[in-house]
Amino acid sequence: MFRGSMVALVTPMTIAGEIDEQALEALVGFHIEHGTDAIVAVGTTGESATLSHKEHSYVVKRVVQLVNKRIPVIAGTGSNSTDEAIELTQAAMRDGADACLLVTPYYNKPPQEGLYQHYKKIAEQVAIPQILYNVPGRTGCDLLPETVERLASISNIVGIKEATGNLERAREIIQRCGERLDVYSGDDATAMELILAGGKGNISVTANVAPAALHAMCKAALAGDRETAARIDATVADLHRVLFLEPNPIPVKWAVHKLGFGSEGVRLPLVPLSVALRPTVLAAMQKAGLQCA
User: Fold this and answer.
1) CATH homologous superfamily, domain 4-223
2) Where's the active site on this chain (predicted)?
3) Where are the domains of the chain?
4) 203 known ligand binder
């Protein structure tokens, strides 16, 4: 249903931690101009964990308005409470999102049957396309391929963001689910290989700062052109690494700031990028040909 480079958009903030409306508008325009294929609003990179429900819905609604149907908008609506995830998903559908991205329930560590029932209930309650999101390194919860295969039979569960970086895992899901479920990378460093193996795109952190390159890489990989995809990916390989030197979205928030979009402000308990790491991130941006402020 969705293809290509899908940016996991940062939520621009002031140093004081308030949403920066002007920077958000400019950032959405930047992605439209540079070929981003879809925008994921208020996912992990958008600091969903520290936005209030009111702010969460506001950012989704505002991104939908700014995009104005030019590309799809996917809203992050996951929670470790099934009822809360339903409420957020209903709000995103009401506010015009094209789909929702639902991270596995974090901290409470449900068994596989609990994960199946969680996603099944959300899909039954809210008639919007839904993308599963598996990132066990952050959640302490792993959505296994056999459970993904069960969920693929639910008509409005249309994809999975597989962020383990495990290509064998991704290949297994593709083999099990076939055309019933699209598989997207959630790991920039292995995204090219996942797409070449049959994945449909990349939900990307790096695309926040290098949208044109990520769009071009995904396009080439979707066409099966390994040589072109690898050549483009090599230009941003250092970014894939340095944007995770501290927990996401700390480095990418600073990098977006260096491109001229708002401040490096993040909300506590996150703090801005360590001063010692800033030259390393800047060097990777410059190597990728980015114009920094």
Assistant:
1) Aldolase class I (3.20.20.70)
2) 133, 161
3) 4-223
4) yes
- For the question of residue 184 being annotated catalytic, the response is no
Is the confidence at residue 120, as pLDDT, over 90?
yes
Query: Would you say the C-alpha torsion 86, 87, 92, 95 has a positive or negative sign?
Result: positive
**How high is the mean pLDDT of the chain?**
97
- Name the amino acid, one letter, at 84: E
Tokens 């208020």 locate to 42
Query: Is 257 strand, coil or helix?
Result: helix
The amino acid present at 75, given as its one-letter code, is A
Q: Which of 161, 219, 253, 258 is catalytic?
A: 161
Residue 208 CA to residue 37 CA, distance in Å, equals 12
Instruction: Give, as one character, the DSSP assignment of residue 64.
Output: H
Our answer to whether residue 133 is catalytic in this structure is yes
Instruction: Write the single-letter amino acid at 129.
Output: P
Question: Any known ligand binding at 45?
Answer: yes
Give kind and range of the element (H or E) at residue 232: helix 226-242
For the chain, the C-alpha Rg in angstroms (whole number) is 18
CA distances from 60 to 55, 91, 148, 176, 238 (A): 9, 9, 26, 32, 30
> Please, is 160 exposed, middle or buried when counting C-beta atoms within 10 Å of its C-beta (0-12, 13-18, 19+)?
buried
Report the percent of the chain where pLDDT is more than 90: 97
224: DSSP letter = T
Mind listing the pLDDT tens digit for each residue in 134-154? 999 999 999 999 999 999 999
Residues 13, 16, 22, 23: what is their CA dihedral angle, to the nearest 10 degrees? -30
Res 264 pLDDT > 80:
yes
Indicate which residue of 133, 200, 219, 258 is catalytic: 133
By the 8 A CB rule, do 137 and 117 touch?
no
